[in-house]
Structures
1.
Amino acid sequence: MQPTTTYPQGPITVLSPAPAHPEDHRASAPRPAGLDGLTVGLLDNNKPGASVILKHLGELLRRRGAAEVLYWRKPHPSGPTQYVSEAAKQADIVISGVGDCGSCSSWSLRDALDVEAQGRPTVTLVSQPFLQKTRIEADALGLAEAPIFAVEHPMATRSDDNLRIEAESLLDAITKSLVRAG
């Protein structure tokens, strides 16, 4: 029952954004020992600049030993997609993003966590203003330790070269989140 206060205009009910029944803690998917021979999945949420960052990360991971890079692009940034189950079946590790607004950062995280729940390690990319919000959501969804990385905001106005440089700066941290330390 939500607290209700009566005013001359009528009752006002205060709603809490906290889930009534927080999801149980989810376990992270097991991380492989290294990149050698793995298939990398890139789950692009269709935001400007996302394809540049994700595809460059895929190429950099291939240079580090990944065997193949698969790419899926959602038709819309926010909302569910059949690509989540495809990524979980076809890729060994998955990068989801790049969320640079409230709803698309939520869906990039949700997509990643749904892949992770199917046993594939993931990371989520969001822009800096949405990093803290996305971490809070990961906690509420049961995986507080979900790897989430921030890119500079806004992405839509940045050059492709600048986005590739950003991908390079995140490569080591993303790699460490996707595979076991060796």
Note: The chain has a mean pLDDT of 92.
2.
Amino acid sequence: KGHASFHHPLTVHGSHPNRTSEPRRSAVLNYFAEGTRSDTDEPLLNGIPTIARGELLNSRFFPLVFDPKWI
């Protein structure tokens, strides 16, 4: 049994409490436009090398998912 939720990041969202003895699992996918640049010198996520402010987010951790030229 499982559920999925797709929404804009500014949408208020939540879920009911986990009333089981099992941990809740989750996966988060963030999509953004090609050409997006880092706006911080701080680490973005644990385990991902820091991307300096102003640098493109285009490493193997931020792959291009869709390019209109592909169709």
Note: DSSP finds no helices and no strands in the chain.
